[in-house]
Q: What sequence folds into this?
């Protein structure tokens, strides 16, 4: 219980029926940092955020946000946070200003302050001209900007952002990222979920890699990358023009191979364990008649970190997740994540 | 402070909902069109006593005598006054039946062979009315019309017979006296409500009540489910807002909307369909308010059950049907079989509709509808007591 933590999570678990979305996780988020949740779809990122925003009740464990207990002081938590949801929170038929005003009023902002803040924020995202236009006429990028400033309206100490750049064009993505950095510079703690490695790396001070509801690594991006080296891992990619599935399987079965990923027909990306791992893999490929036309040993990326800590490439897991959504009025699990 | 903030939040949510609604032009158009169509359709499709005209009927004259021709002339003369039938003549019963089967005529009146001789021998003759009894409604109309024709023709014949008999007895009596002799009792129909009543007057109060209450019952779950689905509900839920403020705000918006629609129903009914209100208008609005109150609990309960718009729609359909048909909005409860009548007694809309009809048409005062009002209040209170904990549980954020 220190003042330095914006968020303290202790043994938090969230189940939907038999499905455990968040599995006994504990972590702290420092004040004024950008904290990234990185993981494949369905890993439990959004559910964690929803629990911390008081939108879902934890099944077990507890958490404090800005020093307030999630359950006991729910309204104080709500007053002190902002939420940028993946599903944009705004009403199509209301104008930008009406949307912002509606939500600002729910936080009991004084009228004058609210109006000033609306003007200020619209200016910040270069949307002053659109103040009185209905959201329905906006492009996705414009909507997302409104979605972000909606969360900033009340000057929250902590702002949660669930996939803030999902589905945006590169240019808007960059401008949203700049905005996130600007928000952070004013002393706001940002908790960010993303399944984009680059985004997590570019923005976050610290990153929690989450998979199957568990945090499997948590550190600064630089330290996470060191994990790969400390584990005596070599990550390299090789181009083999006559690559066959059989060969990939053969390499996968080697005990020195931590993970293998095949991004396309000719390339493999391998995480090898031990000092002789690299040689053994190359020998195996050659012995099988594989022609190696190119080998790259790169600086490990977060992707490699993910590969080495989970043994799988992140994108493989998107398909692996069982669908656990049940609908209907009597179904025990309520809408899992949105 | 908590209460004031709660009410302010409710008010803001309601204003926001109404603003959204006001911007939905299509929705606004249907707000007006829906009661209009409902009134037109229910008002015109339901048969009223004098509404039968030009029903195609076949007449089969198997006797083909002077007497039967005179009879047919009488039928025609009768029909010229009412235009109830569109008469065609066919030569055989088989053809007539065939036409009924084909749907070309609704029924047939058969004058049997031997009418003239029966008349001479003062024996009664059977006039057969054929009808398509696969369609009970049409069959009933046809039977009733046939019976009426036969009865009128019979009376006329009887009057003529009485005059003949009297003449034979060397007594002269006027046709009027003869009529009085054969029909000493004549029914005169008279309602207790002044002015011209039509089916619209029956439907309008019920429709008004139904539309407003349906709004409370189905509008809330739909509005909440919609916000859940588009994701804006998260914005409200992650703000420091009480659950009850949300539900009351939504209710308020739906109530206002229902009232507006109710007033539209009233205006259309009065201006276009000649419905007159006999009772006190403030009392009518009070009954309307009670009706909404009795349904809020049910609406909240449904909100807790429907976590998406589709479920909300299905639940709405399931509840709307019995409400429409069993609560006396369109069809009088008294004409239903006993088990349906019992079923209608457990639906609150029944009492609201009855009360509204009494107030609007019979000019009932508050004391006349005490029992209905009491039932609505009790039902509403019980539903709220059940619904609020369920709703709170369903909202466990």
A:
């Amino acid at each position: 219980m220190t003042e330095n933590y914006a968020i303290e999570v202790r043994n938090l678990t969230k189940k939907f029926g038999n499905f455990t979305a968040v599995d006994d996780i504990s972590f702290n988020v420092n004040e004024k940092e950008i904290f990234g949740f990185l993981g494949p779809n369905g890993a439990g990122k959004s559910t964690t955020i929803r629990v911390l925003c008081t939108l879902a009740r934890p099944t077990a464990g507890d958490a404090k946000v800005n020093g307030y207990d999630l359950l006991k002081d729910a309204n104080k938590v709500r007053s002190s946070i902002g939420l940028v949801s993946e599903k944009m929170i705004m009403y199509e038929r209301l104008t930008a200003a009406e949307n912002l005003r509606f939500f600002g009023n729910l936080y009991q902002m004084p009228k004058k302050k609210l109006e000033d803040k609306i003007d200020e924020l619209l200016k910040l995202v270069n949307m002053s001209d659109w103040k009185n236009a209905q959201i329905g006429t906006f492009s996705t990028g414009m909507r997302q900007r409104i979605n972000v400033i909606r969360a900033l309206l009340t000057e929250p100490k902590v702002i949660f952002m669930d996939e803030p750049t999902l589905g945006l064009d590169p240019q808007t993505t960059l401008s949203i990222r700049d905005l996130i950095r600007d928000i952070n510079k004013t002393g706001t703690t940002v908790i960010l979920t993303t399944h984009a490695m680059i985004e997590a790396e570019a923005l976050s001070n610290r990153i929690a890699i989450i998979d199957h509801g568990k945090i499997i690594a948590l550190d600064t991006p630089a330290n996470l990358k060191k994990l790969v080296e400390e584990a005596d891992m070599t990550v390299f990619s090789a181009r083999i023009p006559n690559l066959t599935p059989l060969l990939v399987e053969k390499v996968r079965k080697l005990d020195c191979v931590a993970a293998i990923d095949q991004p396309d027909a000719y390339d493999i990306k391998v995480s090898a364990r031990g000092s002789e791992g690299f040689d053994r893999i190359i020998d195996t490929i050659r012995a099988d008649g594989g022609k190696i036309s190119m080998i790259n040993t790169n600086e490990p990326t977060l992707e490699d970190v993910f590969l080495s800590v989970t043994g799988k490439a992140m994108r493989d897991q998107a398909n692996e997740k069982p669908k656990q959504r049940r609908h209907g009025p009597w179904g025990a699990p309520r809408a899992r994540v949105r | 402070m908590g209460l004031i903030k709660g009410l302010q939040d409710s008010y803001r949510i309601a204003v926001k909902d109404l603003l959204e609604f006001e911007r939905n032009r299509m929705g606004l158009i249907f707000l007006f069109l829906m009661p209009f169509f409902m009134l037109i359709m229910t008002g015109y499709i339901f048969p009223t006593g004098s509404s039968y005209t030009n029903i195609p009927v076949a007449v089969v004259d198997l006797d083909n005598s002077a007497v039967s021709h005179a009879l047919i002339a009488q039928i025609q003369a009768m029909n010229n006054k009412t235009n109830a039938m569109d008469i065609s003549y066919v030569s055989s019963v088989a053809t007539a039946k065939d036409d009924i089967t084909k749907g070309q005529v609704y029924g047939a009146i058969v004058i049997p062979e031997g009418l003239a001789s029966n008349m001479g021998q003062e024996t009664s003759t059977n006039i057969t009315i054929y009808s398509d009894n696969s369609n009970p409604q049409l069959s009933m109309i046809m039977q009733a019309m046939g019976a009426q024709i036969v009865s009128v023709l019979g009376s006329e014949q009887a009057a003529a017979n009485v005059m003949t008999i009297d003449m034979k007895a060397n007594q002269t009596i006027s046709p009027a006296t003869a009529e009085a002799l054969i029909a000493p009792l004549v029914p005169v129909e008279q309602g207790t409500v002044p002015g011209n009543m039509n089916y619209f007057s029956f439907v309008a109060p019920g429709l008004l009540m139904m539309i407003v209450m349906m709004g409370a019952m189905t509008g809330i779950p739909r509005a909440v489910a919609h916000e859940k689905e588009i994701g804006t509900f998260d914005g409200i839920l992650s703000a420091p807002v009480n659950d009850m403020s949300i539900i009351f705000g939504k209710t308020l918006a739906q109530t206002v909307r229902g009232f507006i629609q109710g007033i539209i129903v009233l205006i259309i009914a009065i201006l276009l369909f000649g419905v007159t209100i006999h009772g006190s208008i403030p009392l009518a609005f009070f009954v309307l308010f009670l009706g909404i109150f009795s349904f809020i609990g049910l609406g909240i309960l449904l909100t807790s059950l429907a976590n998406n718009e589709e479920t909300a729609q299905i639940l709405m359909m399931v509840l709307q049907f019995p409400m429409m048909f069993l609560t006396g909005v369109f069809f009088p409860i008294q004409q239903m079989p006993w088990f349906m009548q019992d079923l209608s007694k457990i639906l609150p809309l029944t009492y609201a509709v009855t009360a509204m009809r009494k107030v609007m048409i019979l000019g009932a005062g508050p004391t006349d509808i005490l029992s209905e009002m009491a039932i609505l209040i009790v039902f509403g209170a019980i539903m709220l007591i059940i619904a609020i904990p369920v709703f709170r549980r369903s909202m466990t954020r």
Notes: The longest strand of chain B covers residues 55-61. Chain B touches chain A at residues 5, 8-9, 12, 16, 19-20, 23-24, 228, 230-232, 234-241, 305-308, 311, 315, 394, 396-397 (CB under 8 Å). Residues 136-168 of chain B form the longest helix (33 residues). The CA atoms of residues 217 and 299 of chain B lie 4 Å apart.
